[in-house]
């Protein structure tokens, strides 16, 4: 498998003063990178697959695989686009009804676990936790590139649970993976949902920012990120959403 990093735009330096300003800006950009994410990168030109997960409290299990209901009334949508050739994943996550601080022994509390429906399994990806923390909607969007780490070494293991994981494993068997987020009050998970594959062209996003179209006409209006959870509920109800623009496959 061939992988390459997507370069960040270069800034021309015309003078020593410009160089100092550019260096300061670079440091600010570095500091603003999502905490706990693996290498943040620009969105690639194309994707090899796309997936969604509708996360609800009734699907949550503890580490032993025992049903442990999450936060009542909470809901989440995970929209994922993958370029497995470059090992890049772009994510749009929206949580509704999740309250309280996050908590997890991993480096973030929002994960993709290698776990089939009704089973527990180790985290393979750790996403930046959706924000802002409070009683309202929380969102997180961006792209990151492997190799991936979670900051967690399972009991009896000698390596990080992300070691050796590549995104083509999701493409090979998406039903074997689940998305979730963990909080102080719901440490087993506030919500959880299994991944299911969707057409690459059915999702229109930009730089990780979620935007689904509400009709399949060319003039369809774009809904904001905060509405992603509501859109997810409509998808479950059987409503199909068309892309605002075609994502190259």
Topology, pairings included?
Blueprint: H1 16-31, E1 49-55, E2 75-83, E3 88-96, E4 110-114, E5 123-127, E6 138-145, H2 168-172, E7 177-181, E8 191-194, E9 196-198, E10 204-206, E11 209-211, H3 228-236
- Largest sheet at a glance? 5 strands, antiparallel
**Beta-strand content estimate:** 15-25%
Number of helices: 3
| Poorly predicted runs of 5 or more residues | 1-37, 206-249
Number of strands: 11
Distance between the termini: 18 Å
Mean pLDDT: 77
Q: Which series of helices and strands comes N to C? A: HEEEEEEHEEEEEH
Strand line-up of the largest beta sheet:
6-3-2-1-9
The protein's oligomeric status is: single chain
Global shape: globular
Radius of gyration: 18 Å
How much helix is in the residues?
10-25%
User: Structural class per helix/strand content?
Assistant: alpha+beta
Structural key phrases:
12% helix; four-stranded antiparallel β-sheet; 3 helices; 249 residues; alpha+beta; five-stranded antiparallel β-sheet
